[in-house]
Task: structure prediction
Amino acid sequence: MRPAAFLATVFAVTGLSLAAVAQTPAATAKAADRLYVMDCGHIAATDQSRWSPGVNVGKPIELSDTCTLIRHGNQWLMWDTGYPDALADKPVSGAIGTASRDKKLAAQLAELNLKPDDITYVAVSHTHGDHVGNVDLFPRSTLLIQQAEIDFAFAAGKTPPFKKDRPLKPLSGDFDVFGDGSVTILSTPGHTPGHQVLLVRLAKTGWLVLSGDLAHFQDNWDNDRVPSMNSSADQTHASRARVLKVMDERKAQLWINHDLPSFKTRKLSPQFYD
Ligand SMILES: [Zn+2]
Result:
């Protein structure tokens, strides 16, 4: 185990805050090898204002749902798992609109000659259904999730989002996944109590922040809007401010999971970013 990974484990076990130690300084961070953007669903929503209170009330919006696969040496990290693969066979309509999937996650992994068991880590930004839909596809991967999110999702009376009896590393703050600063989970509560985003460094592409649902689309991010379903408006504003600072320090891009116009500009797997 590399020193940074060892330290991170020690701090996680002792429950101390990782905020001060998990982020390798930008200048000494290594780079991940490849990043694959995967299509993990589509939402045809009937009312944008669910995410932008008072703005575009009653106006429909189409949203993407993105998964990201990262290769680091011979290890793989799956970031978010999208809607359940079953939606590729049958779209689901409900109060929000219609959720569908053009392609299964399992099929997109197979295109890369990967099986779910090849994935070392699965990390989810949070436990809403459009992000954890395929966590159970990876029963042998170690799930990286905040303890606060586990407490939130598995509270009494709620439908469990996935099987809890699995390899799982509960986090209490930031986490340097590979111990070299290339891929860091940043704790960004607000959308849910244990929401997190992913900070990634690639050699050619540079620094990226994968948003989770810190914001659902570009206009909401630009205007610092808080969706009505968020668990804490104060935490959401604070998490946004924190990510802005990290982005500013590293000249990082923000890739917003559900922002369909930007999703359409991405190279999709099996193409990749490096
Ligand atoms: Zn979402």
Residues 94 and 111 are 31 Å apart (CA to CA). The chain has a mean pLDDT of 93. The helical segments are 3-14, 105-111, 129-132, 147-153, 218-223, 233-250, 260-263. The two ends are 25 Å apart (CA to CA).
